[in-house]
Structures are given as C-alpha cells and as structure tokens.
Amino acid sequence: MITTDALWRFVASKLVIQYPCLRQHLVEGNKKLSTSDIDRLFELFVEMPLSTLDDDIAHEQLPVIVIDALDECGGLRHKPPEREDLEGLLRTLKRWDQVDHLRKFKLIITSRVENCITSRFPEAVSTHIDIPSGSSVKSGDSASNDIHAFLKKQLQDTNMRDAWINEALDYLVPGAAGMFIWAKTAANFLQEDTASRLYILKTWKQEDRAEVFKDLYSLYSTVIKTSFQNISKQKVEAIISVMGAMIFAKQPLDNDALITLPGVRNLGSDLDMLEFIRKGLVSVIDSGSTLCFRHRSFEDFLLSDFFRNHLPASRIETFMNTNLLCYA
User: Which of 285, 308, 288 lies closest to 297 in space, CA to CA?
Assistant: First the structure.
C-alpha cells in the first residue's frame, strides 16, 4: 500500500520530470525535512515548488494531479495506523482549496462515497462527478461500454469463438456492475481453461447484485477455490505464509524474502512452490519478479467477515479462517 509520504514524494518526482526548474527546490526541501510530518513534507515537496512556476505557463500545460481510490488509503477497515495515514492525506489534499496558487492546478480524486471524505470536499469547493456502480449501472453507460471493450479484447486474445465471446460478454459486463477491478480479475481468471472457468463464474450464486463489493468478494472466493483445490496441508501452509507476509509487510516481496517464510522453505524446491503460488494467484497479483496484490480490495477480502463466513468447508478454507488473521 502506498503511504501518504510516498504519494507526495512520487508526485514531486513526476513534477520534476515535467518541470526541471523545480529540482533545486526539492533538493533544498529534502534538507529542511527533519521529521516525518506529512504536512511539512507536502509544503516542501508540493506546495512551495508549485508556487515558483511562472504565471505565463499556458493553462493547458499546467500539471493535472490524479489521486485514484482515495478511500483505500486507510483500507476498507480504516484502522490505525492506516486511518491516521488517511487523515494526513485528507489534510494535505484540503490545502488545494486553502492555498491560492494551488487552485490553478487541477486535482482529480476518485473515491467511493464515504462521509469522512465527502465532508472534506463539499460541492461548494469542488465539482463532484458520480460514476455509477452496482444496481445504478445501466446498459450503454460509459463504464459498461469501457468494460465491454476491455473484456472483448481479453476474450479475443484467448482465441474464443465469436459466438462464445458474445455469450460471455452478456454475462460478464453486467456482472462487473461498473467495477473495472471485477472485470480485470475475471479476465485474468479466464486466461487459463477459459470455457470451464466461464462456466464456474456463471454458476456461482449472487444474492444481491446491488452489493457490488459482495460480488467482488464472491469473485475472489471463486478464484481461490478454483486455483487451490485438492492440495496438501504443506502447500496450504505455504500459501497462507506468503499471503500473510504480503499483508503484514505492506510492500511487494521478492523471491529472496519469500523463500525464507515458514512453510515455503520446508517444501523441497522453494522456487517451484513460489511459482505454484504465483500461478494460483495470477488473477489477483501483479506479474513480475515481486509479489504484490493487484488491488487493495483483495487484501481486505482476506481479512473480511465475508471471507470467514463464505469459505467454511475445505481444509484450505478452514486453515485460512484460523491462521491468516494472525498476520494482520
């Protein structure tokens, strides 16, 4: 999970690329920053450097800063210390309305509607654009059209016949309910044995289409059940060890770190075990040399009541219910 500190440092690094004249201001700001005070960091790395940009820069050339999924800064659980990090981020974002020279730079924030966020950005000082999701998503909405185009391309890459693709889209696009992460996870899940996995998705029960995250969690449940079925207790322990470490570390982990984990190092070929886990989690992790959850919602799913209540039957599910939370 990216922290507020890391976020503003990242924004500052991107500003320097676009405006090299800011480099010296950031170097000086870094020298002045003696604490981890996020408000001071924002002032030195963003607020003050942007104040030095010439007023004659064309409006269309001014930077646009996008903060995506603001609500996930504190996780779905919103517990300390993540909650404190969210509060720090909200304070610094509020500066856009309080500092005159920042107002000329566009700040775009995406987030689920949560009172702790919307109360900081009332319509009096910001423009709100609602993006429909769940039961409010209608056929032909821009979100549905985008998801349709994305899923169609993904299914075409599997060499599925056109008739099957159309049938799959008739189910998958409404199933996504406007949530791209649902569509992305489903598309990754279907890359292997597309026909049988599509059948699995079409047959799992959805009690209430309006509960979007419930549907996303149902999809995550299906991914785990399908990917890790009929496996040994030793492999279960290795899977839990890896996922628990990823949650606890809150940062990507490479093979050198992962092969030292309990459960992994006791299974002969450590790298083969990690490859087995990577293959099973391919729908929900980023590809590459390190393991990182593709979306914060999967971590929250692993620690949710939904996970404990909906995966009660098999050995891996029971083991997860009783052991995974010790890492959080």
Answer: 285
